[in-house]
Design goal:
The chain is mainly alpha-helical. The chain has ten helices and no strands. The two termini are about 35 Å apart.
C-alpha cells in the first residue's frame, strides 16, 4: 500500500510538470511525461495513460482558445496526421525506425537553434499549406512509432503562425484531434484498460492544477520569450530523439 501511494505521488508530480508546460506552450507534455512514467510503468501502460490526459487537457482548454485557432491552417495537418499515424503503425523495421528518429532529432535541433538566434521574423514567408500535409504525415508517423508527434507540428506552425496566442491555440486544437484519434485506436486494440482509467482518475487533480497554472503563466510572457521557451523544449526534444 505504501509503495502504491509513493508511485501515485511521483506520477502526480510528473503529470503536474508535464501539463504545466503543455498548457503554457501548447505542446511538450509527452516529452516530459512518457520517459519519466516509463520508469514507473510499462510503456503499454504509460503511453495510453498520457494520451488520456492529453484528451482531458483538450477538454479543459479548447473552449478557452477555440476562437483563436487557425482552423484553415490545421486542415492539411489533420489529414496528414491521420495518414501518418496509420503508416507509423505498419513500419516494423528497427533500423529504419532508429534512422528516422535521429534524422528528425537533427532537424528539430537545427530549427530550434534558428529560433534561439532570433532568425524567425515577419520578413520570412510563411510555408505553403502543402507543407502542412507533409508535416502532419511526418508527425503522424512519429506519433505512431514513438508517441512523439509534436515537433513536426510545432516546426511547421511556428513558421506559419506568428502570434503566440494563435500558435498555442492551434496546437491545442490539433492535439485534441490527434490524441482523440489515438485514444480511439488504443480502445479498439485493447490497450486502454479499466486499470489505466482508474489510475488516470487519481492523477486528474495534478492535471487540472498544472493546466490552470500553465494557462495563467502563458499570459505573463512576451512573444519573444514564448518562442524561446518553444525553442528550448524543441532542443531537448531533438536531443531526446538522438539518444534513444
Amino acid at each position: 500500500m505504501e509503495n502504491y501511494v509513493s508511485v501515485t505521488t511521483v506520477a502526480s508530480v510528473i503529470i503536474f510538470v508535464a501539463f504545466f508546460i503543455r498548457s503554457l506552450t501548447g505542446f511538450g507534455s509527452a516529452l516530459v511525461s512518457i520517459p519519466l512514467l516509463a520508469l514507473l510503468f510499462d510503456l503499454k501502460f504509460a503511453v495510453p495513460l498520457e494520451a488520456l490526459f492529453e484528451v482531458g487537457l483538450s477538454i479543459l482548454l479548447l473552449s478557452k482558445v477555440y476562437n483563436s485557432i487557425s482552423k484553415i491552417t490545421l486542415v492539411p495537418l489533420i489529414i496528414g496526421t491521420i495518414i501518418g499515424s496509420l503508416l507509423g503503425t505498419y513500419i516494423l523495421c528497427s533500423f529504419a525506425n532508429i534512422f528516422l528518429k535521429r534524422a528528425l532529432g537533427v532537424a528539430i535541433i537545427l530549427f530550434a537553434l534558428n529560433l534561439l538566434m532570433g532568425k524567425t521574423s515577419n520578413n520570412i514567408k510563411p510555408l505553403p499549406s502543402g507543407w502542412g500535409l507533409l508535416a502532419g504525415t511526418v508527425g503522424g508517423v512519429f506519433g505512431g512509432l514513438f508517441g512523439t508527434s509534436g515537433p513536426p507540428f510545432v516546426m511547421y506552425l511556428t513558421y506559419k503562425l506568428k502570434k503566440k496566442d494563435v500558435l498555442r491555440a492551434s496546437l491545442i486544437g490539433l492535439f485534441a484531434i490527434d490524441y482523440s484519434w489515438r485514444v480511439g485506436v488504443f480502445a479498439t486494440t485493447g490497450l486502454l484498460t479499466m486499470e489505466i482509467l482508474k489510475f488516470a482518475l487519481l492523477l486528474t487533480p495534478a492535471l487540472v492544477l498544472g493546466t490552470i497554472l500553465g494557462h495563467k503563466a502563458h499570459f505573463q510572457i512576451s512573444e519573444e520569450r514564448f518562442r524561446r521557451i518553444v525553442a528550448v523544449i524543441l532542443t531537448v526534444s531533438g536531443i531526446f530523439l538522438l539518444v534513444q
